[in-house]
Design goal:
Oligomer: single chain
Largest sheet: 18 strands, antiparallel, barrel
Number of strands: 23
Shape: globular
Structural class: mainly beta
Radius of gyration: 24 Å
Length: about 475
């Protein structure tokens, strides 16, 4: 059976490659009728994380304990994204985005082998590479606006709900099968859209759809933009708020408000998504608030600040109140970058919740202060981040574990603290030219007493977590 499946895969790949070559040949022969533009980006990173368990003597399960594993995980990520665009004529454009690897995983080198034939010391095999077309859509320019049809990126505001993930080092991308009209009337733009998200292998098991309308005002002369994105989300058969159950129905409404304004050397921006509705018959009412500020102190110095209020889920299962930001919206290098609980598990696979980077911000009030200094081709930066939890576990009853996304039984002799801790980061980037850069970042995370909670009589120990990342990025 395995040989038959392998033969089928080879046949499918062969036909795909043949079709692709045929398309390139046809496009090349029709060079006088169409143009083919190529853009894209490439990245390679090395990650070192020390003491991710906070203490090797901690229990491996319960509360916010972390499964065992190497005390100093080291892994690499590799990702290449190609964006060919066919210019059919002045009114029709065909966009596409091809991935080599997976941005959420992208692990290579000394990653954990997934098959037995790579567990021997003499093995020199490499497996797991993949090539896929993740986005492909048509853009048609008409008298009433631009029409988008196909699998296209979604983005709004700061990226708390819809985040296209177009940056070189972005790992998560909002993408849907859309029919969208983008119309502009002076400084106003209006964009109704119908979006269908990936539903897996069965069209009858359910699905998830958005019906959205965005209204935006943008005035470059006043350095101001603002608007609201209305999203009606309906579906069935998807995971519910808690990963321990499956939603029978999803019916929510989101008003995503965004604004940005520049005052001389200062620039401020804010986004506030407000959501209401029901998930599996349970009322869901929540919101999030994130703000960003930036000051151009001089030609070489910039100051920045980020703050946010992101509610978490309480112990009650009668109403859902927590909000999870898009996992692409990151702060700092460790606390809101890595899913520490996944570092000790089987994190190289296909389940998105096992990615070590899938750590959406939730259940916190946070403040980040940062600075940036430019020195020729060099960019030097530093940041300080502080966070507190909004929902904590008691000694009895239940609580919502933000890592496992499940309601669990509380325990222990001491209630959980709200102190998530603070982090200190520093980094440097060498911008060799407009296309190539090399970066290095280091961070220290000092966990708060929030992570001592183990739902048992003995509390976890909280030692300092350190991380160091080196990366190369190329844009073309």
């Amino acid at each position: 059976m395995e040989k038959v499946n392998a033969l089928r895969l080879k046949t499918v790949f062969g036909w795909t490659l043949t079709l692709g070559l045929a398309c390139v040949t046809v496009l090349g022969s029709q060079a006088g009728a169409v143009d083919l533009d190529w853009t894209g980006d490439f990245r390679a990173e090395n990650h070192w994380i020390n003491n991710y368990r906070m203490n090797s003597a901690n229990a491996q399960s319960g509360g916010y304990s972390i499964p065992g594993g190497s005390s100093v995980p080291q892994f690499q990520t590799l990702f290449l994204r190609l964006k060919p665009r066919v210019v059919v004529n002045d009114n029709v454009y065909l966009h596409s985005e091809w991935w080599l690897g997976n941005p959420a995983y992208g692990v290579f080198g000394d990653s954990a082998p997934s098959t037995a034939d790579r567990r021997t010391f003499e093995s020199t095999l490499s497996q797991g590479a993949q090539v896929s077309a993740q986005r492909f859509w048509a853009e048609v320019l008409t008298d009433v606006g631009n029409v988008h049809v196909g699998r296209a990126p979604l983005n709004w505001g700061l990226g708390l709900v819809w985040n296209a993930g177009n940056g070189v080092y972005d790992r998560f991308q909002s993408t849907g099968d859309v029919v969208r009209l983008v119309s502009k009337f002076g400084a106003f733009s209006f964009a109704p859209a119908a979006v269908k998200y990936s539903a897996g292998s069965s069209v009858s098991a359910g699905g998830l759809s958005d019906y959205a309308i965005s209204l935006k005002y943008e005035n470059p002369d006043d350095d101001f933009e603002g608007g609201v994105n209305f999203i009606r989300r309906v579906g069935r058969g998807f995971g519910s708020y808690s990963d321990s159950s499956v939603a029978s129905d999803i019916n929510t409404t989101t008003w995503d408000i965004f604004t940005r304004k520049k005052f001389g050397k200062f620039e401020v921006a804010a986004e506030a998504p407000i959501v209401s509705g029901k998930v599996s018959g349970v009322t869901y009412s929540s919101y999030a608030l994130a703000g960003e500020g930036r000051m151009v102190w001089s030609e070489t110095w910039n100051l920045a600040a980020k703050l946010g209020h992101i509610p978490g889920q309480g112990s009650s299962q009668a109403e859902y109140t927590g909000f999870f930001l898009h996992p692409n919206y990151k702060l700092g290098l460790i606390l809101f970058q890595y899913q520490l609980a996944n570092l000790g598990g089987a994190n190289v696979g296909t389940a998105a919740d096992r990615s070590v980077f899938n750590a959406p911000i939730t259940n916190t009030n946070y403040l980040q202060l940062a600075t940036e200094h430019r020195l020729g081709k060099w960019q030097l930066r530093g940041a300080w981040t502080y966070a507190r939890a909004l929902e904590v576990a008691g000694t009895t009853g239940s609580y919502f574990n933000q890592w496992s996304r499940k309601f669990e039984s509380a325990g222990g002799t001491v209630a959980q603290s709200s102190a998530l801790g603070w982090e200190l980061d520093a980094g440097a980037t060498l911008h060799w030219d407009d296309q190539f850069d090399f970066k290095a970042d280091a961070g220290l995370f000092f966990p708060g007493d929030f992570f001592k909670y183990s739902a048992a009589a003995s509390a976890n120990q909280t030692g300092t977590v350190a991380a160091f990342v080196m990366g190369v990025g190329v844009k073309f």
